[in-house]
Amino acid sequence: MVLDPPPLRQPEAIRELIVRAVRARGALTEYAIAEHWRPIWWLRRSAASVPPYVDSLVADGTLERLAIEDGGAPVVVEEGVELDRPRPTTAFLLSAFDNLLWEPRFGQRVLGFEHVIEMYKPAPKRRYGYYVLPFFSRDRIVGRAHLKSERGDGSLVVKALHLEPGIRRSRVLDSAFDRLSTGSGAPRASSGSCDEDRHRRQAPNRLQLQAFCKHRASAVMSPCSA
């Protein structure tokens, strides 16, 4: 065991950080890789700093670039990643800050879901609520829940549930709320209104989703059917 290894030189460190970002999140554009390491000024300074490092990682067989059917920026994945994976059968609530949605434009492009964080907005300007959790079922985000923890009695209240077009409320959603309340130790007191989000959404591309979500299958709370 090396207790005091020599520090990596900057080019080696950047290569390692890029590989770690792709492994952690499944598939990323080069811009999203730069966003992933935003606090590191010499990588975040410009997305243009990333491609030369990706070029070298592709050349040595560590990573691979994949063209996307929509003609947009290619994604970077691990070399040899399996794209034709079985459709997931799981459902879970995401944190509003989950890394799946760190780069909103890419999330909308792949999932057809417009992620908004509104806790920083004045209440009259919010569309969905103060703290809203996206709900992931199978291979897409099907809605978002406005939750609140009541300090008085410690209960978890679902103030509103906004479903994506074509989605109906089911036992799968209720099971996810129950698992969340059990895990947090807060009884779920009540459910608020359930509305379909009538804004137009781009339909998710299933081919794109395979690589993008490959690490999600092992990170869910429990299996359930949609």
Structure description:
The protein contains 7 helices and 7 strands, in the order ααααβββαβββαβα. It has 2 domains: 10-78, Winged helix-like DNA-binding domain superfamily/Winged helix DNA-binding domain (Arc Repressor Mutant, subunit A, Orthogonal Bundle); 91-212, no CATH class. It has a 5-stranded mixed beta sheet with strand order 3-4-5-6-7, covered by helices on one side. A two-stranded antiparallel ribbon has the order 1-2. It has helices at 10-25, 30-36, 41-44, 51-59, 104-111, 171-184, 206-212; strands at residues 63-66, 75-78, 91-93, 132-137, 140-149, 156-163, 188-196. With 226 residues, it is of the alpha+beta class. The longest helix is centred in the first third of the chain and has 16 residues, at 10-25. The radius of gyration is 20 Å and the shape is elongated.
> For the report, how would you describe the main beta sheet?
5 strands, mixed
Instruction: Estimate the mean pLDDT confidence.
Output: 77
Strand content: 15-25%
Question: Strand arrangement, largest sheet?
Answer: 3-4-5-6-7
Terminal residue distance: 48 Å
Radius of gyration: 20 Å
Domain count: the total is: 2
Q: Name the helix and strand elements from N-terminus to C-terminus, one letter apiece.
A: HHHHEEEHEEEHEH
Structural class: alpha+beta
Unreliable stretches (pLDDT < 50, length at least 5) are 198-226
Give the % helix: 25-40%
| Number of DSSP helical runs | 7
Overall shape: elongated
Number of strands: 7
